[in-house]
Specification:
The complex is a heterodimer. Chain A has 12 helices and 7 strands. By secondary structure, chain A is mostly helical. Chain A has a single domain, classed as Cytochrome c-like domain (Cytochrome Bc1 Complex, Chain D, domain 2). By secondary structure, chain B is mainly α. Chain B has 6 helices and no strands. In chain B, helix 5 packs across helix 6. Classes of the chains: A mainly alpha, B mainly alpha. At the A-B interface, helix 2, helix 7, strand 3 and helix 12 of A face helix 2 of B.
Chain lengths: ~260, ~170
C-alpha cells in the first residue's frame, strides 16, 4: 500500500514535470502535498538499507574504522568531518573514496564512483553520522587548506556556454531571488551537505552531493567536472564548509 | 606472489597504502577547455537595430526560451530548434533573470526590462550600443556581474545579439 502510494505520487510528479516550464519550476500545492508524504516515507530509505547490505557484504565497520585509523565508537563523529585528510589515502578524500579504499583493503572489487552500489553505500555510511553536526575542519592541515582554496576557485570561476559560475546563482547577495520561478537556495542554512545523499523528487532518484553539483553544471552549460577529481573534492570541501554545524539527516529529500 | 605477501604484511602492520585505488581523474584539461576568455569590448555593427517584425520575433524567441528542446512554440523564420549535428540550439533564457512584456515565470536576478524603450531609451538614459555590449559581454559594464556572457564564449553571433537588442529596445 505504502509503495503503491509512492509510485502513484511519482507518476503525478512525472506528469507535472512534463507540464510547461513555469509549472516545472515552482512548487505547486500538489508538489507540496507529495513532499509532506515523502517526508514520512522517503524512497531513499530503501537505498540506505541496501547500502548497508552491500557494505556488510564487502567489509565490516571494525575493519573500516581500522583502515581509517579511528575507534569504531568514534566512527560517527569522524564521518561527520568529511571530506577530510586520511593517512591511508595520503590526501583529502570524500566518503565515497574511503569506500573504494575499504573495498581494496578487504580484497574486493573496487566500486566505481558513478555506480549505484557506491551511491547506496555512501548513503549508508553517512547515515551512521545521523544526528551529528557537520564538523569539517578546513584548517586542520595544509592539505585541507589547499583543497578549501581550490574549491573556492572552482566555485567562483566563470566558464562554459553561458559564462556562469556556481557563484552566479549561489552568491550571498542573490540568495532568495528567483531564477525563473525557482528561489535560489542558501547552500549554507539549507543544510546542503548534511542532507545529501538525498532523494530528488524532480529526478525520481537518490543523488550524491557531488552528482548534484554536476546537475547544476549541466543546467547552466558548465562542462561537468568528473567525480573524484581534485577540483570536485575541493568543491565538496568548500560547499560542505558553508554548512558546518548543520545536523546530518540522511537521506535528505529535495524538490 | 611476492606482492601478495608484501600486501599482507602491510595490512598486518595496519599501514596499507591505499592511495592508488582511489578514483581520482584529472580535470585540468576539461576546465581549460571550458574557460571563459577575457572580457571584450564590441562595436555594434552597422544596421544592427531593426523594427522588422521578423527580427523582433527572433529576438523575442531568444529572450523567452532556454534551448530547442525546452521551447514549446515553433521557431520563427530564420531560427531552428535543432542543429544539423543533432544537438538542440541554445537560446538566451533571459527570462530566467529578467521580467519583460508578456514574460511567463520570469526570475528577478536581473532588472525588469519592461517598457525599456519608454523608460530608458526615449529618456536618453541608455543607448542601443549599451544594450548590445551588455548582452555580448556584460563584464565590461560590470566586472562582477551575475549576468550570462553570450558572445565572448561563442554562444551567440552578431546577428543574434542584434535581434535581441532590437527586441529589447522596440516599442511593445
Amino acid at each position: 500500500m505504502r509503495n503503491l502510494s509512492i509510485s502513484a505520487a511519482l507518476i503525478c510528479l512525472a506528469l507535472l514535470s512534463n507540464a510547461n516550464a513555469e509549472e516545472k519550476m515552482s512548487m505547486s500545492d500538489a508538489d507540496k502535498a507529495m513532499y509532506a508524504e515523502m517526508l514520512e516515507n522517503n524512497p531513499a530509505d530503501m537505498d540506505v538499507a541496501e547500502g548497508e547490505q552491500l557494505f556488510s557484504g564487502m567489509t565490516t565497520l571494525d575493519a573500516y574504522s581500522k583502515m581509517l585509523g579511528v575507534k569504531e565508537k568514534d566512527l560517527p563523529a569522524y564521518i561527520s568531518g568529511f571530506p577530510r585528510y586520511v593517512d591511508a589515502a595520503k590526501k583529502v578524500v570524500t566518503l565515497s573514496q574511503t569506500i573504494q579504499m575499504a573495498a581494496a583493503d578487504a580484497g574486493k572489487t573496487v566500486p566505481k564512483l558513478e555506480s549505484k552500489e557506491m551511491l547506496k553505500m555512501t548513503a549508508y555510511v553517512k547515515s551512521l553520522a545521523n544526528g551529528k553536526k557537520t564538523s569539517i575542519d578546513v584548517k586542520a592541515n595544509a592539505q585541507m587548506k589547499e583543497m578549501m582554496k581550490l574549491g573556492q576557485e572552482v566555485f567562483e570561476e566563470r566558464r562554459g556556454g553561458r559564462g556562469l559560475s556556481c557563484n552566479s546563482c549561489h552568491s550571498p547577495d542573490i540568495i532568495g531571488q528567483r531564477l525563473r520561478m525557482q528561489p535560489l537556495p542558501d547552500l549554507g542554512v539549507n543544510r546542503a551537505a548534511g542532507t545529501w545523499p538525498a532523494y530528488r523528487m524532480t529526478k525520481s532518484e537518490t543523488t550524491l552531493l557531488d552528482k548534484r553539483f554536476q546537475q547544476c553544471m549541466d543546467n547552466a552549460l558548465l562542462a561537468k567536472i568528473p567525480l573524484g577529481s581534485r577540483e570536485m573534492v575541493g568543491l565538496e570541501v568548500y560547499v560542505t564548509n558553508k554548512t558546518k554545524g548543520n545536523e546530518i539527516q540522511i537521506p535528505g529529500l529535495k524538490r | 606472489m611476492r606482492i601478495a605477501i608484501m600486501l599482507g604484511i602491510a595490512t598486518l602492520l595496519g599501514a596499507a597504502d591505499l592511495s592508488q585505488v582511489i578514483e581520482s581523474p584529472d580535470a585540468t584539461a576539461i576546465l581549460k577547455k571550458d574557460a571563459l576568455p577575457a572580457p571584450k569590448v564590441y562595436a555594434m555593427p552597422e544596421g544592427c537595430i531593426s523594427e522588422d517584425p521578423a527580427v523582433i520575433a527572433r529576438g523575442k524567441y531568444f529572450f523567452h526560451n532556454l534551448n530547442g528542446k525546452d521551447a514549446k512554440d515553433p521557431a520563427p523564420e530564420g531560427l531552428v530548434k535543432m542543429l544539423p549535428n543533432g544537438k538542440e540550439k541554445q537560446f538566451g533564457n533571459c527570462v530566467a533573470c529578467h521580467n519583460i512584456e508578456g514574460a511567463k515565470g520570469y526570475g528577478n536576478i536581473g532588472p525588469d526590462l519592461s517598457n525599456y524603450k519608454g523608460l530608458f531609451m526615449d529618456s536618453g538614459a541608455r543607448k542601443a550600443e549599451f544594450v548590445y555590449q551588455k548582452i555580448a559581454d556584460a563584464r565590461i559594464d560590470n566586472p562582477v556581474t551575475h549576468m550570462t556572457i553570450n558572445m565572448t564564449n561563442g554562444l551567440m553571433n552578431e546577428r543574434e545579439v542584434c535581434d535581441l537588442t532590437s527586441y529589447i529596445v522596440s516599442k511593445k
